[in-house]
Amino acid sequence: MTFEYAPAPESKAIVSIKPKYGHFINGSFVAGKKHFPTINPATEEILSHISLGGLSDVDKAVAAAQKAYTKTWSKLSGKERGKYLYRIARILQERAREFAVLETLDNGKPIRETRDIDIPLVAAHFFYHAGWADKLDYAGLGHSPQPYGVAGQITPWNFPLLMLAWKVAPALATGNTVVLKPAETTSLTALLFAEVCQQAELPDGVVNIVTGDGSTGAAIVNHPGIHKIAFTGSTDVGKKIARAIASTDKKATLELGGKGANVVFDDAPIDEAVEGIVNGIFFNQGHVCCAGSRLILQESIADEVIEKLKVRMSKIRVGDPLDKNTDLGAINSKEQLVKITELSAIGDAEGAERWSPQCNLSDKGFWFAPTIFTGVTQAHRIAQEEIFGPVLSILTFRTPQEAMDKANNTPFGLSAGIWSEKGSRIFWASQHLKAGVIWANTFNKFDPASPFGGYKESGWGREGGKHGLAAYLKTGKETGAK
Ligand code: NAI
Ligand code: MG
Fold first, then answer.
1. Which of 158, 229, 237 to mutate for ligand 1's pocket (most ligand atoms within 8 Å of CB)?
2. Is ligand 1 within 6 A of the CB of residue 232?
């Protein structure tokens, strides 16, 4: 006898969404001129209207950030800056449920993830960086490292508030001020964060949020008052930004795409590996730059792993993101659904074999069943391109060296996973994999103390940890020190 899960929806009552939002500039909300809707991708219901920021909005935000930098923020001691960060972290914890529900509504990701992963990590990033604010002289970055000034920050839609935290917390801890633009489909939690800045009595202009699309992002990148850029998003836009700043002295960190290899050796604990494979690709609907989107299986265990994976995938609950039992929520936008659908069709056309469990997907909203492709070769586009959805490409190998060669054969180098019981094999493989983050016998684990970033087309620089601080500080000769 099997028991069905009863619906367990989280209440929406805790959030209050305004019909229309402006920008957050110099400590206040200011009305925008043009607006565009933001929807709940699980229902296609319009949640609110977001301002489309233009050049003059960006100008005002940069001017406010510049003034706050010179008059207030750069004059405060690290200890005083740290107090504000601690205050923000505590308010985020107090309002965690409100943020989790709002993120789930605007993004489509399951409440289980926003509640247990996104929002706790957001608070953790502010706590971690609060601790650094008065210890920068001891970060190994030389004597008295100095901030750059105004940081322009552009975030994607897959982890909206978490990517804001990855960017705002280190910028403020190091004494920079901020102009941030959230992604167009998921601006609501950034606007609620603006309210947290007010509640924490953060000095006006230290954090400014201008909403809008790619043109707004480009206006921030190109603004002469911006000294440092932090971007997370697609490799295409990352390249545009790199070109735009090539002849300037703007510093940049770029966190771009990935095609992470999850390598399972024949001595791996198979049941644990299956959990790790599921977490690697189906976490956050596969909208994860470091997703384990290529499974590289030792040939001798391939059939067993794939069989067990299919059994496990049949138990993934796809549906209402607000339901506490849901594992896989909605695809973030119609555009992204089209991209996933098209790339998967290319997988079929190239001769790979597709499999998905039986799923009842709603007609309203954007959905894609968890999917695997077997018989994938390195030449297949689904083995090379970022699908950014719940789609796994499975390849096999015979020798450990072949596994490494296949794992490294992409233009990206963001993440990788190794599954083996042997410590020496894990050590060997981690030295051969060209990836910024390598997990062993686990996948998709994040911690503010751990630097994150990529090789090759996965980007420049690191965010998080001590290495992440360096991106916001002038060191050595740059400070003008002799
Ligand atoms: P995108 O890279 O266009 O958007 C990311 C952010 O950049 C958004 O805030 C957007 O408004 C802004 N932006 C767009 N054009 C810009 C420009 N010229 N200058 C400055 N900022 C600009 O990503 P999009 O179109 O939403 O997704 C396309 C693909 O990118 C996805 O299918 C996925 O493969 C990849 N992606 C990767 C992410 C990652 O974390 N690595 C996150 C989001 C998307
Ligand atoms: Mg939305």
1. 237
2. yes
Q: What is the pLDDT of residues 381-403, one digit of tens each?
A: 999 999 999 999 999 999 999 99
pLDDT at 367 over 90: yes
Query: Residue 77: which of 175, 176, 181 has the closest Cα?
Result: 175
Q: Return the ligand number nearest the Cα of 157.
A: 1
Of the listed ligands, the closest to the CA of 156 is 1
289: annotated active-site residue? yes
Q: How far does the centroid of ligand 1 lie from the alpha carbon of residue 457, in Å?
A: 14
Q: Look up 45 and say whether it is catalytic.
A: no
CB 241 within 8 A of CB 254: yes
Q: What is the pLDDT of residues 64-116, one digit of tens each?
A: 999 999 999 999 999 999 999 999 999 999 999 999 999 999 999 999 999 99
- Do the bridges between strand 459-460 and strand 251-255 make them parallel or antiparallel, or are there none, so unpaired? antiparallel
